[in-house]
Amino acid sequence: MRIDIITLFPEMFEPVLNESIIGRAQKSGVIEIVCHQLRDYAFDKHRRVDDTPYGGGMGMLMKAEPIALCFEDICKQTGTKPHFVYMSPQGKTLTQKRLKELSEIENICILCGHYEGVDQRLLDTFIDEEISIGDYVLTGGELPAMVFADALARMVPGVLSNNECFTEESHFNGLLEYPQYTKPSEWRGIEVPEVLLSGHHANIDKWRKEKSLEVTKQKRPDLLENN
């Protein structure tokens, strides 16, 4: 999978996406993440990519043409038209189910918004999907893009050591994950549940399913209503 990111701050992504699991996946060639400086596609000597909105109002708006030129350049580089995602508080909230669907797409491009947003004409003609990471507003789309890219990349086969690393996680099957424990078996007088020490895999699986339902009912009952 190749993920292209259109941003005003490409330097923000390097310390995050070039480290740990995602960084190793890039080095091994399982995924490729390429950041593009939007100002490289501006027209004037000041490399401006924003202007005042028609009709007045506070703030500045990102211009359509630099974004369009950057995306068209990415299309030439990849030899295809990537699925174009705009990180926006107006988008549909990102879910594990949608991540699974998007992980099957070979090329995805992410646009990081800034200022008061993006010229609607660009959104209407170029953007395939708007995605939000929650019902709140940030100063820019870079942090949401990092969240999206990280969550998406780890769903790609070969990024994690085993598919079970994510298939048993919270939200993958509509439930929260069961409680987990590690050594020592007793910590400050609290024992690990005996079933986990039994070596009886059928009983352990049964316990985990029951606990998963219990945790979901306690912390996120809305998930049970949606299933």
Descriptive overview:
There is one protein chain. The protein is an alpha/beta fold and 227 residues long. The chain folds into two domains: 152 residues, Alpha/beta knot; 59 residues, tRNA(m1g37)methyltransferase, domain 2 (Trp Operon Repressor, Chain A), CATH 1.10.1270. It is built from ten helices and nine strands. The strands form three sheets. The chain has a five-stranded parallel beta sheet. A two-stranded antiparallel sheet has the order 3-4. A two-stranded antiparallel ribbon has the order 8-9. α4 links the parallel β5 and β6. The longest helix has 19 residues. It is elongated and about 70 Å long. The chain starts with a strand and ends with a helix. The mean pLDDT is 92.
Compact overview of the structure:
With 227 residues, the chain is α/β, with parallel strands linked by helices. It has 10 helices and 9 strands.
Distance between the termini: 30 Å
Order of helices and strands: EHHEEEHEHEHEHHEEHHH
Number of strands: 9
- Provide the CATH architecture of the largest domain: 3-Layer(aba) Sandwich
CATH class of the largest domain: Alpha Beta
Tell me roughly what share of residues is in helical segments. Answer: 25-40%
| Number of discrete helical segments | 10
Oligomer: single chain
Largest sheet: 5 strands, parallel
Low-confidence stretches: none
Strand content: 15-25%
CATH topology (level 3) name of the largest domain: Alpha/beta knot
Physical arrangement of strands within the biggest beta sheet: 2-1-6-5-7
Write the layout of secondary structure elements.
Blueprint: E1 2-7, H1 14-17, H2 20-28, E2 32-37, E3 50-51, E4 61-62, H3 64-78, E5 83-93, H4 96-102, E6 107-112, H5 120-125, E7 129-132, H6 142-153, H7 164-167, E8 186-187, E9 190-191, H8 194-197, H9 201-219, H10 221-226
Parallel strand pairs: 1-2, 1-6, 5-6, 5-7
Antiparallel strand pairs: 3-4, 8-9
